[in-house]
Amino acid sequence: MTAHAFATVTFLLLTATAFVPAQAAEPPALPASLELNYALHYGSMTVGRVVKTLTREADGSYRHRSHSRPLGAAKMFTSVEWFEEGQFEVVQGKVRPLSFLEYRVGADRSHRHSARFDWQAKQIIYANGVSVPLPPGTQDQGGILFALMLNPPASGTQQTIHISSGKKLRAYHYARAGNETLKTVLGTIKATVIERPPLDKDGESLRVWLAAERGNLPVRISTQKRGQETTLVLESVRGL
């Protein structure tokens, strides 16, 4: 696998997806501290590790961080490590992003994108000073998995959600695709499957498996593009 392919794999898997919440009288709370460790598979090979963390601040907001690094055969092609950092608050049981940063270490060229979410002015302000309208329900690509934990999408509907990468804002479509039983590090669990179709013929599709009885933890995340599949598989959890 080429360095470009690994970078694309990591970016796609870090790119999160946003979901419109199902109706619930008392949505579950996020843990005060959480660490999710994933193995990154490219076909049958393990090519990396991704660690996602969540920490609740004294003011009630949350900080999230993701670190992706290559392993095994992938290290022959790239040493680039990808990072995401952000802050969000929970308002009426829904995740609302406040800031987001994505950057990489070890690359020949710099890559650093950031955004600030001004909900009062309804604007996203990017690092270059450009601002764009902030649609209701917008998420950033790093914090969206936590939004999903709080509010999985409802059955029988397709939702269009805006997601910011720190550089661009795109609208994606998501739908619940049923349930599956999986063997995971948490044991054999019943998982809710979420699908996101590609935006165009050359885009990637996405499937996310949520552990319905374990706080909707994302235990598996899979993408497909041009016949190539990459998968994040949960290996360990701390703080649940």
Topology:
Blueprint: H1 3-14, E1 33-42, E2 45-56, E3 62-70, E4 81-91, E5 94-105, E6 112-118, E7 123-126, E8 131-133, E9 139-140, H2 144-150, E10 158-164, E11 169-184, E12 187-196, E13 205-211, E14 217-225, E15 228-238
Largest sheet: 15 strands, mixed
What percent of the residues sit in helical stretches (DSSP H or I)?
Answer: under 10%
Strand order of the largest sheet: 8-7-6-5-4-3-2-1-15-14-13-12-11-10-9
* Overall pLDDT: 86
Q: What order do the helices and strands follow?
A: HEEEEEEEEEHEEEEEE
The radius of gyration is 17 Å
> Which range does the strand content fall in?
over 45%
Put simply, the count of helices is 2
Spans of at least 5 consecutive residues whose pLDDT stays below 50 are 11-27
**Total E-strand runs:** 15
Distance between the termini: 35 Å
Shape: globular
Structural class: mainly beta
What features would you describe in this structure?
With 240 residues, this protein is mainly β. It contains two helices and 15 strands. It has helices at residues 3-14, 144-150, and strands spanning 33-42, 45-56, 62-70, 81-91, 94-105, 112-118, 123-126, 131-133, 139-140, 158-164, 169-184, 187-196, 205-211, 217-225, 228-238. The longest helix is centred in the first third of the chain and has 12 residues, at 3-14. Residues 11-27 have low confidence and may be disordered.
Summarize the structure.
The protein has 240 residues and is mostly beta strands. Helices cover 8% and strands 54% of the residues.
